[in-house]
């Protein structure tokens, strides 16, 4: 089967593409990404090309594996700031913004991570609000039963007093 590159219109066989073991790994990782991310990943990876040079398969594999690792955690942390929830849809939105911004030859994913972390602020606020509401309405559950009543405390005080030979 012959395929045509949509960028340069070069023709090559699909079989030749899949003969390269690293190319197969890239395609395997790409196929395992969530649909929203897989659709955007080729355009995102294109940002990592240097000038007119192509992207080597080994570098493409490194980039796509890192994207997979970022997305799979379900959270995002930018530098030493707090961790925020980051569902797949948020990562997809961050990829769109990053692709549109076209940062100059990024060396890593810091731009994407910063966009995702910034966009995750409302989700983090909502999660914190939910935790706080739950904390305020929580009924404490004790492993050994409820706390002692005043009568039980006096009985314990009396036992301690008797043990020590003192009146309480």
Polypeptide structure, described:
There is one protein chain. With 168 residues, the chain is mainly alpha-helical. The protein has a domain at 22-134. It is built from eight helices and four strands, in the order E-E-H-H-H-H-E-E-H-H-H-H. The strands form two sheets. It has a two-stranded antiparallel sheet with strand order 1-2. Helix 5 (88-101) packs across helix 6 (110-119). The longest helix has 16 residues, at 57-72. It is elongated.
Which secondary structure elements does this structure contain, and how are they paired or packed?
Layout: E1 2-4, E2 11-13, H1 14-19, H2 21-32, H3 35-46, H4 57-72, E3 75-76, E4 84-85, H5 88-101, H6 110-119, H7 121-136, H8 150-164
Antiparallel strand pairs: 1-2, 3-4
Helix pairs in contact: 2-4, 3-5, 5-6
């Amino acid at each position: 089967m012959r395929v045509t590159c949509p960028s340069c219109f070069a023709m090559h066989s699909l079989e030749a593409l899949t003969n390269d073991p690293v190319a197969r790994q890239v395609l395997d990782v790409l196929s395992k990404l969530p649909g929203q991310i897989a659709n955007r990943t080729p355009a995102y990876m294109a940002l990592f090309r240097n000038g007119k040079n192509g992207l080597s398969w080994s570098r493409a594999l490194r980039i796509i594996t890192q994207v997979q690792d970022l997305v799979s955690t379900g959270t995002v942390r930018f530098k030493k700031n707090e961790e925020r929830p980051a569902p797949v849809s948020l990562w997809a939105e961050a990829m769109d913004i990053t692709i549109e911004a076209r940062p100059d030859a990024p060396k890593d994913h810091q731009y994407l991570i910063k966009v995702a972390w910034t966009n995750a602020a409302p989700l983090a606020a909502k999660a914190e609000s939910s935790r706080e509401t739950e904390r305020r309405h929580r009924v404490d559950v004790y492993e050994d039963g409820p706390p002692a009543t005043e009568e039980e405390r006096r009985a314990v005080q009396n036992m301690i007093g008797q043990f020590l030979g003192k009146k309480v």
